[in-house]
Amino acid sequence: MNNMENMIGAKALMTAMEKEGVKQVFGLPGGANLPMYDEFARCNIRHILARHEQSAAHMADGFGRVSRKPGVCFATSGPGATNILTGIATAQADSAPMVAVTGQVSVAMIGKDAFQESDIIGMANPVVKYAFQPRDAAEIPEVVKKGFFIAETGRPGPVLIDIPKDVQQNEAEMVFPDEFKIQGYHPWSDPDIVNVEKAIDMLLHSQKPVILAGGGAIISSAFAELQAVAETLMLPVVTTFKGKGAFPENHPLSLGPIGMHGHAEANKIMTEADCVLAIGTRFSDRSVGTFEEFEKGLKIIHMDVDPAEIGKNQTAQLAVVGDVRVSLRIMVKLLLQKAIKKTEETPWVKHVKETKAYWQENLKLHPGEMGAAKILRKLRELLPKESIITTEVGQHQMWASLFYDVIQPGTFFSSTGLGTMGWGFPAAIGAKVARPDVPVVDIAGDGSFAMTENSLATAVLEDIPVIVFVLNNFTLGMVAQWQRTFYDRRMIGVDQGKCPDYVKLAQSYGAQGIRAQSMDELDKAIRDALSSDVATVIDIPIDPEEDVLPFVAPGTSLKEMILPS
Amino acid sequence: MWAILSILVENKPGILFKVTHLFRARNFNIDSISVGVTENPDYSKMTITTYGDEKQVDQIVKQLDKMIDTVKVEHLDEHKTVFRELSIFKIKLSNANDSMEINKLANAYGGKVHDVKKDSIMVELTATPDQIKAFEELAKPFGIIDVARTGVAALQRSGSS
Ligand SMILES: Cc1ncc(C[n+]2csc(CCOP(=O)(O)OP(=O)(O)O)c2C)c(N)n1
To answer: Which domains, and CATH codes, for chain A?
Structure first.
C-alpha cells in the first residue's frame, strides 16, 4: 500500500484534519494534549488560543454554524475536558457541527484515578452525537474521518475524540482511508414524493395554512425553497426562535418567531391556523407552549431530516423525512409542474396582514430614549444586511427576537436549545473566523457577557474584530423579570451592580470600549465599531426594570400570551 | 402495551451503558433486559421489554434506531415471536408434602428441580414472563426465599416479518 506512512498519533491527527480541510482550531493546552500541540508547530493549522475551554467550544460552534463545516476545539484531559462540556452540550442542543479533541491520560492509567483523569467519554456521551476514544495510534486517521462525517451529516452535532497521551505519542503505520463504513448510521433518506404531493394537497385544502420554519431550515440553507413555497401558495411564515431569519423578516408574509417571547402577531396567527407546514423543528416547549393545546384542531405536516423528531413532541398527520431543502425543492418542482400558483390574496392572508399591521402599530414600547426596541432598531438600521448576529441569553436575546429583523436569511444565531449564557461572544469570534468579510455582532446582556468576557483577549490578540453590543441593565434581567412577575418582586441574586465598567474592561484588553447613553452616541458608536479593525464593546446602559413583552408564561399555551398593559 | 424490542448492536465496550442511558434520559422505562453476543462476534443482541402506548414505543424505536452503535432495531410482534425468560426460585419447605407439591408444580410449568435440601428447594423455569408470574403466584404460599430472573430473550419465528 502506497498511502501508508509511519508517524506518531498526534501527527496523524493533524494530517487527517488537514485532509478534512481544517484551517484553524480553538483551544487551550495542558499536559495531556501536549504531543498534539507540538504538532501545531509543524502543520498548516492555525491554533487560536481561548482563555477557557468552554469558550473554545463556543468559538468552534460559532464557526460551525456559519460555515456548516465542523468547528474544531481542543482541550487537555480532566478539567480541560470537563470545561469543554458546556460548549459541547450547547452544540448538541442546537444541532451544530463540531469536533472536540481532548487529551486523556495514558491507556495504562485509565481507571486509576490518575492526575487529571476524567471519564469524559462517560460524561459526554449523553450530549454528543458520537464519541471516540482510540486506544491504538493506528486508529486515529479513520476515527477523524468518521468523526467529521458524523458531525456534519444528517442532523449535525458535536463529536468528541478523546485521545490518550500515549496514543498521541506512539508510532504506527498510518493509513488514511478514503472510504469507511459506519453500519448503524444512515444520515440520509430520500423524501417520499407521494408525501410531498399529499402535503401540497393538505395545504391547498385548508382555510388557514401557515409555515412554521425551525432551525432545520437554517441548517440546510433551505431559504430560496422556503420563500418559493411561501410565495407560490401564499402562506404566511412564522418561525421558531431558532428558525428566526430562515425567511426574510421584512417580507410581507413574514410574522417572525412564535413562542414564549415570540411576536404577538405570530402567536395569534399560529393559534388561529388550521394547518401547519412545520419545517425542521422539534416543536420545543418554548416555541409551542403546552403540547396538547398546540396541536388541538391543527393539522401538522412535519418535514425533518431526523425521523426520531416525528411524533416526539407533536403528532403529525403527515411526515416527510429527509433533508428539508431537498423536500422543499421537490415541493417547488411539483407546484411548477402542476402550475399551482396563488395569485389572489385569500381572506386568510388579508387577515394575517391586518393582524400584523395591528400589532406593529399597537406595540407598547418603553417610553425612554434608550428603550430596547429603539436600540435594536438603530443597530438594524446601521448594519449591512449580510452582517452576522449572535446573541447571549436573556432579555436582550428576546428583544433581538422582537425588534431586530433578519433580512438576509441565515445570519442570526443564538443558543436556543440549551440557553447558554456566555455563548454569544465566543461564538461571534468563531463566526468572524468563518466570515471575516462581514460584520459580526454579539447582542449581549451584562450578565451573559461577564461569563466569557475574557474572550476579549482572543479577539484582540488573534485579530478577530467582532462587536459586542451590551444592553447593560446591571442585572440578570430575565431572571429579574420573572422575579417581578412570578415571585412578588423578591429580587434575589440578580443585582450585577455597576461593576465592572465594560468600557475600561475592553480597553484593558486592548479592545475599543465605547459607552452610548443617547441615540446620537449610539449611532456614532455603531459607526465607529463598524469602521474599526479591533474588537469593540459598546456599553449601553438601559432601564433595569424594562420587561420583555409579550410573554407566554411557562406551562401555558400560546393563547394565554401576556401583553403589555 | 408491553413491547419486546430486539436490538442488534456492535459488540463494543460501553454500548450497554449508552442504550440504557437513552432510556433513562428520554424518560422511558426498561422492564427487562438481556444481552448476549450473537453467532457473529462483532455483534451483540439486546432484548429489552418495555411498557408504553403505541406512540411511546414508536419513539423508543426511533431513538434507538438513531443511535450510531445500533445496527438494527425491531419491535417484535408478540404473536409471531418465541420469547423466554429464565428464572430460578428458592422455595421454603415447611412440611413433608411440600417437596412433592412443588415438584408437581414445577413439572406442570416445565421446570426443573435442583438443590433439594431439608428446608428448601430450587426450581429453574424457562418460560414467558406471564407463565413465570403465574408460577410465582402458586409458589408464594410455600414461601419464596429468593428469586433470580434474567431478562427476556426473543427471536421472531421464520416466515413472519
Ligand atoms: C449558564 C447559565 N446560567 C444561568 C442561566 C439562567 N438565566 C437565564 S437568563 C439569565 C439572565 C441573563 O442576564 P443578562 O445576560 O444580563 O441579560 P438580560 O436578561 O439582562 O438581558 C439567567 C441567569 C442561563 N441561561 N445560563
So the answer is: 3-176 (3.40.50.970), 193-361 (3.40.50.1220), 365-549 (3.40.50.970)
